[in-house]
Every structure is written in structure tokens, then in C-alpha cells.
Predict the structure.
Amino acid sequence: MESLRGKVAIVGAADTEVGVVPHLSATQLYVKGAKLALEDAGITKDDIDGLITCASWVEPYMYHAEMIAEYMQIFPRYCLNVATGGGTTLAIMHHAASAIATGVCNTVLITMADNMLSGLSRDRAIEAMSTAGHAQFERPYGPPIPGFYALLAQAHMHKYGTTSEQLAAVAVACRKHASLNPAAQMRQPITIDDVLNSKLIAQPLHLLDCSLVSDGGAAIIMTSAERAKDFKKKPVYMLGVGEGHSHEHVSQAQSLTTSAAKEAGERAYAMAGLGPKDIDVAELYDCFTPVVIIELEDLGFCPKGEGGRFVEGGRIELGGELPINTHGGLMSHCHPGHPGSLFSITEAVRQLRDECGPRQVADAEIAFVHGQGGIMSTHCSMILGKEAN
Amino acid sequence: MAALSPKPIPVPTRETKPYWDACKKHELHIQQCADCGHHQFYPRLYCTKCMSDKVEWVKSLGRATVLSHTTVYRPVTQAFAADVPYVVAMVTLAEGPQMMTNIVGCDPEKVHIGMAVQVTFDDWTEEISVPKFKPV
């Protein structure tokens, strides 16, 4: 199998305003993100010959990518819509990279957005997402989305002694980083006690162990490494990518404490020829705090079962051994649904371009991004670097 | 009135009808492969171990152990509001397959991983009885 290592680059990356954005519809957020990414790349819409979108909950179209192309009046030769929940972003980029490397198209626009908060309301958004459960064999038992993840947390705590304080440390780190990011939805710093004293949603998860419900959009532009040199800004290269898929419904998961992030990470490291010790900054999918702890283990940043201890003492904060979610993550920056992990990519790009100001990780050369969708069902890991080699 | 329950009432399909028919009689039935002996849940056309099409319905002992659990304080929808706090759990049946369920008939705080439980049925409508588990 031919490797994609260093063959494809991100040459444009942008976020719309995020959080509470009532003045833009879901479709407008997709298009605004696209326009900002085109400007960042210094190209026009006529330079785009590939378009990939995620599905929107609020304004769904049967042919969503075609709808966005029509709305923008662009006429791509490669056009598709992908929906694998929080894993969508990275899976899309994997497809885009394959299409570019094989010459199917040259320059791909990926735009993702939704307005779960203003378009649905918080309660309806939460209810809509809960339909992820199996209609006959899960939903009759009333599991909310946090409840599914609480099952994972409880199993991890039982097996490895992980504590609620350790879960809370993840939320505290994300909020600390969001406090340094003017774009973030929630910027007021919080403490471990704040998390533990917030409302219990599904034991052991408190309100502040859960990510946000938001509006927002982001977009990136990818092209081949050769073409990438001709764009406005310094390219960020894809060095490794890998996926892992273990189930759709969590009740069918073969393990509650180890996920297919393990396979995804191993595949990405193998392609990049790099390992966990080479990573300067990690943007890890953080829909709920225990997910980050499981990912840190499965992606090799610490031994299995040590994730709880790893997140203690500021190790995952700026200045620590492995700063994570430097924009604030889904916990504190924003979480508009499917697009959530694209903000991890745009943040990783900004980190590798040295554009992050007070939240910049010094000398960041290699970034790791991980997305997961479903209930730890579908995983994609990506390693990005400043240089192609 | 259970018959008016606004909860998501399962709608049996051709594939799952034998399961729900058994539940109506307060029996838990799962599939077993006649070729390799593998038990599976949820029901499928083929055996997930050897892909044989000789999957047969068998009566489960209805005994299980708790694999994980959570006590829900914020209900998924208002239909579940009256049940709060309720326990959502995953259990491993004595025959091997795992399933999601509710643990009922005990204080939520008493539920623990490894706890031995036994199936019980919650009659939602004349057609649908939902299998749940209670401490042995």
C-alpha cells in the first residue's frame, strides 16, 4: 500500500464565529466558513475542484454537498457528504487526501457547520443526538448521550481506579485553554471542585464533564504537497492518518475501556514514522471527560490504565508535558455536532503556523488530532507537521 | 397507563419478532448457532462467529452480571422524567452475549459491576414487554 505520508497539505483553515450565533443559519455557517478558508488560502472558489461536507442536523439536504456547491455556485468534479459523527472530520480528510494523492482532484474544500443551539434549542439538540441509540435494544432503557459515556467511565474507574477528580482535570484544562482563546464559547476558568459540584447528569458524569451545545462552522482547504508551496501561507502537511471502527452501538462494544482509537493511532504513527514522544500538541476529541483519558491511553501517550494519573498536575495543560485541546475543545470552545473535530484541525494548523498568541505551544512542530464518533465507535487519528519530511 | 406510555416503544421487525414474542410471554430468547454453538444478541440473519445461516432461537437462563452501569439524573426525554433516578446498565448474559438494560428492584446506589442479576419484564403494552434485570 502506498503511503500518503507528506503527500498532502492543508493550505487554508478558518473558523466562523462560534458559540451562540443566532444571526446565521446552518447553511450560511457552512458557506461563511468556506469563504474564510478560501481567503486564508488566498484562492477563489473557482480554484476548488473537490468539495466535502458533513451532514447538518438543523438544515439537512439529501444531497448536502451538492447543495453547498449549488449555493456557492462551484462545480466540483469530486463531491460528497459524510456522516460518522465526531469522527467525520478526520475521515473526510482521509478521503480527501486519498483523492488528491490519486489525482481524482487537486484542491478540496472541506466545510462543516451546524447551529445545534440556535437552530434546535439545547433540549431538542440533546434529544436529537440521543436517537443514536438502537431503537429496539437501547433507547427503551432511556440512556441519554452522557449516560452512554458514563458506562465507559464507570467501567474505567472500576478497572483502573480512575477518579472523578481525574475526569474533572480534563474539563479544567480545556477551560483554562479556552480562557486564553477570545473565540471560545465558555471562557471563565473552573476548578476541579466546580466540576464535582456541578449537577450530576449520569453518574459519574457531572454537567461540567459534558461538552457544550453550540453553533459554528469551520473549513479547510487541502491540496497536494507540490501545489501547497504556491499558496499564501506556509502549508501544514499530513504525515500520518489512520482509522479504527469497532461497533455502532455501545451495547455491542467488545470493550468499554479500550477503544479502536488504539488501531487508528497505531496506523497513523506507522504511516508518519513517529511515536507519541514526538508529539508537541494534541487535539483530542473531548465530548465527555472520560473519552480524553481513554484516548490518551489508547493513543500511547501513557500506559493503559494510567490515563487518570496522566491528566493530573497540569500535564495536559499549556506548559505541561502534552498540552491538549489548546482552543478549549468541545468542552469549552464549541460543539456544534458533526463539525466538532474540524475545530481541532483548524487549531492544530494555527499552532503549527505559530498563530496562537497566548495559547501558543512553543516550538510546536508536530500535532496529533483525534476524532471519534458514535459512542467510541468510529475513530480517526491524524498527525500533522510543519515540514513534509 | 402503560398502554399510553410515550416512551420509545420498540417496533418489532421480521428479524426481531421472535424476541419480542418471547418477551411477551416473559421469556428472554436469544440466538444460538446450530453449527458452532455460538450465542448472539441482538438477532441477526447469520452467526457472527462462523457466518452460518443456521441460527436458532433458544431460551436464555435470564441470568447475567453487571458489566457497567450509570444512574441517570437528567432524563433523556420527558417521557423518562418520572423514572429519575434510573439505572442504565450493560449486562453480560450467562450464555455470553451482552445487552443494555435497566436495573430495577433495588436502590441505584447498590448496583455494582459484577453484581448478579436476573431478568424481569416490564409490560409496556399488550404487545411489548421490555426485559429488565433485578438483583438475584
